[in-house]
Amino acid sequence: MLELERLTKLFEEGKITRRTFLSTASALGLTAAISPALLSKPAHAEGKVIKIGGAVPLTGPVAYWGISTMQGWVDGAAVINEKGGIDIGGEKHMLEIITYDTKGTVADARAATTRLVEQDQVKYVFSQAAASTIGMLQITEPAKVISVVACWGYLKIYGKDYPYHFRAEMSDYEQGYAYIPFMQEHYGKDKLKSAAFIGPDDQDGIDCNYSYKRLMEYYGIKDLGVEYFNWEDTDFYPIVTKTLKSNPDFIVTSPSPPGITASIVKAAREMGYKGPISSPAASETKTILEVAGEYAHDVVLPVTCVEPVTDSQKAIKARFIKRFGDFNALAGNYSWWIYGLVAAIEKAGTFEDTKAVADAMATVVLEDTYVGKVTWEGQNSFGIRRQGVYDCYTTLIENGKARLADVRYPELPDTY
Amino acid sequence: MTENTKVAAGVWLIAIAFAFLLPVICSYDKYILHVGITIAFNIALATSMWLIWTLGFISFAHAGFMGIGAYTSALLFTGLGWSLWVNMWLAAAVAGLMAFVISIPLMRTRAVYFFMASWAVGEVIKRVFAYYRGIFGGWDGIFNIQPPKLVLPGLNIDFSSRVAYYYLALVCCGLIVYVIHRIVRSRTGMIYWSIHESEILAQHVGINVLKHKVIAFSTACALAGVTGALYAHYHTYINPKTFDIWQSEFSLVHIIVGGLNTLNGPVLGATLLTVVDELLRPTGWYRVIFFGVVVILTVLFLPGGLETVPARLRALVGKWRKRSD
Does domain A49-170+310-385 have CATH number 3.30.1360.170? Predict the structure, then answer.
C-alpha cells in the first residue's frame, strides 16, 4: 500500500497523468487483492499431510451452498490439526484443504477436479450441488478418489456403480420420513390428506417432485399435482393461485431457497391459504421472516437447527463466528462431513487405499454432530450404503417466530 | 508480404508449434491438457462468433447453436451408436440449417433489436432442450456420450486418452480458425466488412446484404455446431444449462479483450482469459472481480484489445528512439 500512497502523491503533485494514475492504481489494487489467495500456504506444509480437495461453487447462483460446504471442511481441518492431526498406525498426519471454484457448472467442476487429482494429488474431494458433482464424478471414480457431496436426485450417477461416491447431505426424500410424521403428529393426520408441490423448472425440481410423489404414496396422502417456477421469477402469485385451485391440505416446495420460499408463503397467505407449507431445502429462517413478515406462519423447515441446543452445536456456532465472522444453519449441517471421513481413515488405518477407506466409511456412525447422530444408509435401495442419514432438526415458524419443533431420526422404510 | 505480415506469420507458426509440442512440454499432465482442450473449444466458439461480428452483429444465440451441434451428435451416438466422425458433420449441417431458417427473419433486424432477438433465440433453444424431456433428456441432459475411436489399417487411436483428444481438439480448432481466416481474407470477407461499415451503402453498390448476412450467420453457427459436437464427446455429458446465454457472453468477453478487428483478437482473448481463469481458480470469488476489472481496464486503456499491443509497443519504441535521437 506504500506504493499506492507514493502514486497518489505523484498524481497530486501533477507529475503523472490521470490515465497513468488510474491504470497503475488499478493494477496495484488487483495485485493486492488476489495475491493473498494465490500465495498463501498452510503452516504445516512441510510435515506429513493428507490433502483434501474441494471443487465447490464459490461464485454463481449456488455459491451460498458452496461457501457453506467449504467452511465446514476448513473449520474441521483446523480443529483436527490443532489436536495434532489424524492418527494412522501411530503416526500423525495433518490435513490440508485445497479449494477451487466450479462456478456451479459441469465443465468447471471437471477442470477443478482434474487439477485436484492430477496436480495436487488429492485422494479425497468434496463438492456441492448437482452440476459440480456430475463434473467431478467423471474424474474421481476412474481415479478411485473418494467424493463426498451434497447432491439430490441424479440417481443415474449414484449407487453400486459409483463405489467411491458418498452423498452426505440428506435429500428431501430421506428428510420426508422425519418431517411428514412430525407434521401428521403436529397438525393431525386427518388434516393432511392431500398435498401439492411447487418446485423450480429444472432437473432439481423434477427430482424433488419425484421424491415428493414417493413420499405421498408411502404416507397415503393424495397428490394434487405440481407447479414449476423459473429461477428468474419474482412474482409467485400466478403459480400459487394455480396451486391453491386444487385446495391442498398442505404445500411442499423444494428445492426452494429461503427467498423463494418466503415469496411463496407470502403469496399463499395473502390469498387466504391456511394450511402448512413445508420447504425441505430452505434451511434458514432469517430471510423467510424478513420477506414474509406477518405472513410467516405454519412454515415447516426440515434439517434446520435454528438455534444450537447441544454443547457441540453451540461450540460449532461459536467457532464458525470466530473463524468466518458468520454462521448459518446450513454450514452447521455440513460440518460433520470431514469428521466422517477422518473416522473412516482412522478405522481403515490408511489414507492411500481409498477402497479400504470407502468400505470403512460406510460403517462409520457419528453420535454427536451438529445434526445429531449420523449413519450411512441405502443398502436396500441402491445396493450400497452411501447416503448420509441423520437426525432431522425441524424448525417451525409460527406467527412470525421460528422455534425448533422436532428432532427425530428419519423413520426409513425397510426397503431403503 | 509486408514486414508486419511476416512477423505475424512467424508468431502464428511459433504458437502452432508450441501447441503441438505442449503434451511433451507439460510431460503429458492431464490437467494442462484439459486446459489446452478448453482453450481450443473457447477459440473455436469465439472465432465463429467473431465471423458474425464481421457483419457488425453480436449474436447471443451462438452458444445455443453450439448446443444444437452437441445434442445432434449426442443423440446420434446414444440413439444410433454413430461415431463422432460422422456426427460432427451432421452436427454442423443441423446447426447450419437451423441457423439458416432462423436467420431469415433474424437478420432483418438491426442493432438493439438483433441483440434482443438473438438473446430470445438462445433462450428458446435452451428451453426446447429442457422441455422435450423424452427427446433431449430435459434438464437432466444426456449422459455417456463416449469419445470416438479411430481404427485404420495400422492405426488404432482411442480418443478417450486425454492426449489424443487434445490433438483432435487442436486440429479441429485449427481448421475452424483457418476456414474463418480464408473467408474474411476473400472477396466475400470484404463484403462482410463493407456491411459492417455501412449496410445501406453496401446495399446501394449492389450487394445482396440479406443473402450475405444469412450465409455468414449460418456458416458461423455450423462451425459452432462442430465445436458443440467435439465438446459433447469430450465431456461425455451435456445439459441445457451448458449452452445458455452465459456461454455466449464469455465468448463475447474473449473477443472484446482480444480485439475486434482481426482474427488474432478472439484467438488471443480466448487463450489468455482461459489460462488466467484457470490460474485464478483457487482465488474463489476474486475470479469474478478480476474478470470485471479486466474487461473495464481493456475498454478504458486498451481500446482495440490485446491485438493492438504490438502496434502500441512499436509506437512506444519509435517515440522513445525519436526522443533519444
Answer: no
